[in-house]
Amino acid sequence: MARTTHQLIHGPEAATFLDAFLPAYEEVYAEPPYQEGPREVAEFIERFQRQAHRPGFRLVLAREGDEVVGFAFGYRLQADTTWWNGLLTPLPQELTRETGERTFAVIELAVRKPWRRRGIAGAIHTRLLDGLGVQRVTLTMRPEPEAAPAQRAYQAWGYVKVGRSRPWDEAPVYDAMVLELR
């Protein structure tokens, strides 16, 4: 078994790495419950190119040799974020207020099927959050039972469900999770 390495890329430079991890994205998100096809992949590409320019953007690529086996990325939520607007039950303002330095949002974290259950997701997550200097981390994810393995992993890493969210009109309902760092 080859050794897994992790590469951390900051800011807009991350956009130049899209071709490196896009095959992994396509593979992972073709699986249930996502079942993404060409239209969704094209939307992802467009969204990623924009997200890479957000303040505090980070991308982590996990590789075995030259092959990307997993990835994660996210960015800091700015004061004018709409991140919390999709909550089905609004949270108190003290929980949803953002400053640009308070919260890092994990947008994607994925590991290709042959490399799952080896601790690679946990290592990617740790590298993504290393040295962030924020108070907390948030993410949205599919609820159980759809995403039971991911739910168990995030809970083991300390995330707590704070609500349910529909981030855009056609989106499925996600669990909104928060990990307090300090």
UniProtKB/TrEMBL annotation:
Entry EC no(s): 2.3.-.-
For this protein's source organism, the top of the classification is:
Bacteria, Bacillati, Actinomycetota, Actinomycetes, Kitasatosporales
User: What's the protein here called?
Assistant: GNAT family N-acetyltransferase
Record keywords: Acyltransferase, Transferase
GO MF entries: acyltransferase activity
Question: InterPro entries given for it?
Answer: Acyl_CoA_acyltransferase (IPR016181), GNAT_dom (IPR000182)
Report the residue ranges that make up the N-acetyltransferase domain in this protein.
Answer: 12-180
* Enzyme category, top tier: transferase
